[in-house]
């Protein structure tokens, strides 16, 4: 399997939007991706399989931690280890000691994925999403994994 990574640029938004709309009931829109990509603190990457975009990640880097805003693999390519590879790539590029993410409380597949990666539940944000659903706040801490 020929897998590669590259920077997610604005010319990739159409391909990413197509994946986003297949993967999520409430997907990000073009403006959300565009605004993220112009932020100098954003880390945005693509994962490609045989030179085809099959996934992406968008994260906001701060001096103390990284906030993973969106990570997604095309539904046809899920359960092949690509999400884990993309997360490992983000870790290597960010140099972060801690990564945080908010996940819909109902998104069992994502919660299982993050638990498998080593994320831990640290809090719940009540009615975080526009539809009133709660968010589970998860943290991945590299120091915890090294001990």
Automatic annotation (TrEMBL):
Protein name in UniProt: [Ribosomal protein bS18]-alanine N-acetyltransferase
GO function terms (MF aspect): protein-N-terminal-alanine acetyltransferase activity
Alphabetical list of Gene3D superfamilies matching this protein: 3.40.630.30
EC number(s) on file: 2.3.1.266
Cellular component terms per the entry's GO annotation: cytoplasm
Name of the gene encoding the protein in the UniProt record: rimI
Catalytic reactions on record: N-terminal L-alanyl-[ribosomal protein bS18] + acetyl-CoA = N-terminal N(alpha)-acetyl-L-alanyl-[ribosomal protein bS18] + CoA + H(+)
The organism of origin for this protein: endosymbiont of Bathymodiolus septemdierum str. Myojin knoll
Functional description taken from the UniProt entry: Acetylates the N-terminal alanine of ribosomal protein bS18.
């Amino acid at each position: 399997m020929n897998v590669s990574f590259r920077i997610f640029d604005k010319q990739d938004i159409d391909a990413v939007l197509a994946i986003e709309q297949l993967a999520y009931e409430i997907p990000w829109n073009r403006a959300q991706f565009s605004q993220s990509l112009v932020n100098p603190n954003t880390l945005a990457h693509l994962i490609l399989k045989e030179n085809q975009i099959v996934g992406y990640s968008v994260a906001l880097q701060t001096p103390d931690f990284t906030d993973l805003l969106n990570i997604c693999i095309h539904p046809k390519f899920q359960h092949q280890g690509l999400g884990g590879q993309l997360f490992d790539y983000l870790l290597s590029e960010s140099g972060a000691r801690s990564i945080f993410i908010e996940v819909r409380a109902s998104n069992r597949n994502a919660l299982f994925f993050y638990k498998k990666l080593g994320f831990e539940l640290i809090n719940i944000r009540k009615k975080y999403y526009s539809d009133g659903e709660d968010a589970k706040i998860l943290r991945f801490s590299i120091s915890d994994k090294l001990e």
